Amino acid sequence: MASLDNFVRLPNGVRMPIFGLAACPFCSLPGTSHGGGYDQESVIYALRECNYRLIDTARRYGCEHLIGKAIKESGIPRESVFLATKMWPTDYGTESAIQAAKSSLTRLDTDHLDLYMMHWPLCPSSVDDVRSTLDNAWRGMERLLDEGTCRSIGVSNFSIQDLIGLMENCSVVPHVNQCEFHPYQNPKELRAFCRENKIEFQGYCPLANGMILKEPPVVKVAQSAGRSPAQVLIRWSIQNGVVTIPKSIKKERIQENCQVFDFELSPQEMAELDNIPKTFRAVDPAELQGKIDDNKPDGYKLPSHLQYVPM
User: Fold this and answer.
1) What are 75-91's pLDDT values in tens digits?
2) Where exactly is the site Lowers pKa of active site Tyr (predicted)?
C-alpha cells in the first residue's frame, strides 16, 4: 500500500508530494473563531510528527514568516519540505512579480521556492489591461524559474479560458493549477484540460469547509470503509490523482487526515462520491474583486501578536 511519501512528478521533473498541509488563516471550519485559522504548534506537529512534507501558503494569508519559523523549529531539513506560496493580484506585473517573490523568500527565510503561483486570474479594478497584466506577471515568474529562485511555477483558481489566455503568450506552461476540489466542486472538464496539457491539478478545501462531512453518500462510504468521513474525502481526492492539501489547526485532525494511504476506495465508492449533485463553494469568486480592491493588510484575520512586522 502507498505511503505518505507518495509524490507526483511535474512536467519539468520536480517531485511534488501528493499530500500536504494548507497553512491558511482563512476558510476556517464552521464554529472556529475568526482568528483561529492558524496555529504554529500544529504546523510544527504536522512536519515533525506526521511526516507532512508539502506546506502551502500565500502572501495574502500573512503567515509566511510563521511558516519559515515552523520549518526551522520542526528540525526537518528545508530540502525535505516542498514549500509553495502565492503572489496576490496587487503584485502582478513583471518586475513587481519578481520583487513579490523575493519578499516572500525573506518572510519564509529561505533561498528558493519549490512552487510559486499566481493566486487569482483577477487584477485590481484600477488595471485597464487585465490580459497584459496577467501575461506580464507570468513573464516575471518565468524569469524566476530561469534563475532558479523557483523550482516550479503555477497558477491558482484558473479556469480553462484563463489557462488558454495565459498559454497563448507564455514560454512555460503552468506546472500546477490549484483549485477548490471536493465532491461538491468537482470540475471534471477543467481537470481533463489540465491533464491534456500536462498541468498538475492541485485541490484545496477537500472537506468543503466541513459542509460535506454529513452528506449521506460520504457517511455511507465512510462506514463501509471503517474510516472517518474526512479520511474518505481526502482519499477520494488522492485516488483521483489530485494533489491534496487539507487544512486543520487541531493536532488530532492533522494526524487523522494523513492516515489515508493504507486503504483504497472501490470503483463503486469512488463513483458515488464523484456524482454528488449538490454544489457548494468554500470560496465565492463573486466576492474576490472586492477583496482584491480593499485595503486590508495581509493576514488581517491573524491575531495581532502573530502578524508580520518588517524588520
Assistant:
1) 999 999 999 999 999 99
2) 86
Q: 9-13 — which CB contacts under 8 Å span 24+ positions?
A: 10/152, 10/175, 10/176, 10/200, 11/173, 11/175, 11/198, 11/199, 11/200, 12/151, 12/152, 12/175
pLDDT at 131: 97
Rounded alpha-carbon distances, angstroms, from residue 254 to 188, 211, 292? 28, 18, 30
CA dihedral 307, 158, 292, 39 (to 10 degrees): -20
Q: Is 235:269 a contact under the CB 8 Å cutoff? A: no
| pLDDT at site 192 | 98
- Phi, psi of 167, deg, nearest 5: -70, -20
Residue 204 has pLDDT above 70, yes or no: yes
**Extended beta strands in the chain, E state:** 7-9, 15-17, 21-22, 54-56, 82-87, 115-118, 153-156, 176-180, 200-204, 243-245
- Element at 161 (helix H, strand E): helix 160-167
CB atoms within 10 A of CB 102: 11
User: Which residues fall in the annotated binding site for substrate?
Assistant: 119
- Edge-to-edge order in the sheet of strand 54-56: 21-22, 54-56, 82-87, 115-118, 153-156, 176-180, 200-204, 243-245
Active site residues: 61
* Rounded Cα–Cα distance for residues 249 and 266 (Å): 30
Average pLDDT over residues 223-228: 97
242-275: per-residue pLDDT in tens?
999 999 999 999 999 999 999 999 999 999 999 9
Give the confidence band of 30 by pLDDT, cuts at 50, 70, 90: very low
